[in-house]
Structure formats: C-alpha cells, structure tokens
Fold this protein.
Amino acid sequence: MSQSSLKPAWQTAAEYAPSAVFFVAFALTDSLRLAGWSGTVFAIAACTVAIRKSASAHSLFLGINFYFLSITPLIEILHATGFTTAASVINTRARSLVFLAILITGLILSAQSARGFLNVPQIDTATVRRTNLTLCLASAGATLWALTSNGPEIVQLAAPMSALFALHAMLKRQATPALTEPRLALQDTRPE
C-alpha cells in the first residue's frame, strides 16, 4: 500500500480509542458503568475528530463507536426513568448488541453514502452494491449468532468480530487493487 493511501496515525488511534479505553477501564476498575461511560466519552471525541477532519472512518469502528455512544446512555436513561426491567434486559445482552450497532451503521452507510458500507473512496457502483450486501448479511449473521449463542465469549463475540474484520479487509483489498497492488509498467519489447 502506498504511503499516500495510508490513514494518518492519529485517525487510526482515534478510531481504536473508545474500545481500548473501555477495556482498560473495565480491567482496572471492574466497573462496567465506569468503563461504559469512558467508552462513551472517547467515542464522542473520536466522532468529533472524524467529523471535523472530514476523515473517512473504518466502517466497523464507526459502528462500534456508535454502539459506545448509545448503549451506556440508553441503559442509564432507562434506569433513571423507572424502566429497570428493560435496562436489565439490554444490559444482559449489551455485549452482543455491538453487532446490531455495526449492522445499523452499515445499513445507513449503504443507503446514504456513495462509498457504502465498505466506506472506501473511488470504487465503482457495482462493487459498492456487492460489498454492501456482503457486509450487511455478514453483520446480520454475526448479530444473530451473538444474540443466540450461549457459548464462551470467545465463541459468542470474538469469533464473529474477527470474521467481520477479516471480511472487511478482504473486500477492501479486492475493491481497491489499484491502491493496494503495484502495477507492472508495460515495456516496449520490439527490437530496435
């Protein structure tokens, strides 16, 4: 990949920050509430930076950050307004709902952005449609898997998340060969 097509380091760090802060805060404090609010604050910062810099965010991290922006405030509002049963149900499934946030983000990007769910510039409309369908179906499958699987978290959450990131990377490589693969220059082979 050429240097000009790489994301700036600050943008990559901003996209990762909410997840990293959430995991570190949870590991250090064992407080899901504190970790959730920490992730929310960093998601607000990440989204603000991306909007101000007109940066092209990684669509899966955009979905994860949307999740951080919504899940903790939603649970807190439900508790504060007396809907404790609903808050408890959401809290029980909160980890799995990250896939729903990715799916919703993907559907919005598919409907509203010329770059689609893959969120890559300069690809043709047919590729955008194909990658939209592929990523939306994969996200829907991951959502259903995470919500219905009763296995260990590595099977319930880590495996489908890893599969989504791998699929996204593969589709991006296929959709942008000019940006990722060096092209051989044609040489004149006629005798002089």
